[in-house]
Design goal:
Blueprint lengths: L2 H16 L10 E6 L3 E6 L4 E10 L11 E5 L6 E6 L9 E10 L2 E11 L6 E2 L14 E5 L2
Organism: Neodiprion lecontei (Redheaded pine sawfly)
GO molecular function, one term: carbohydrate binding
Protein name: Gram-negative bacteria-binding protein 3
Length: about 150
Amino acid sequence: MGTKGFALMVVLVTGIIVNVDSYDTPTPLVEVLNPYGFRVSIPDSPGVQLFAFHGNINQEMEGNEAGTFSVDIVSKKNGRWSYTNPTASLNPGDTLYFWTHVRVNGIGYEKFHQEFHVPAKPSQNTGDSNNGQPQSGDEDVYIFSM
């Protein structure tokens, strides 16, 4: 291979490496619903095709185990990919252990070893990032930062 051929190959390989899409998996928003339930969501981004949530309440996760809650969300709603569990109970002092998977342009991105600690005194919030309104108007929402 001559100098010109080698230079062309370097340019092509560099172009492929530089153009590889990367995705920074967002930290999910966790909302505690009243009287029961919780919601975990991420904002929509270009190319997102699926959001998966795997979690346990008060039981640590081992690697990529399925967990008590194991769901794939295949469509967004109001600009967010959300999993809502209307029956689980998150009480002050509980810990939600979880990991998430996001498929973007056919490539999977995992974020392991996440925890959400339910504080002793939630502050009620009448809205979230959904234009200042809860995703469902029939529940009180408590939002906590992780």
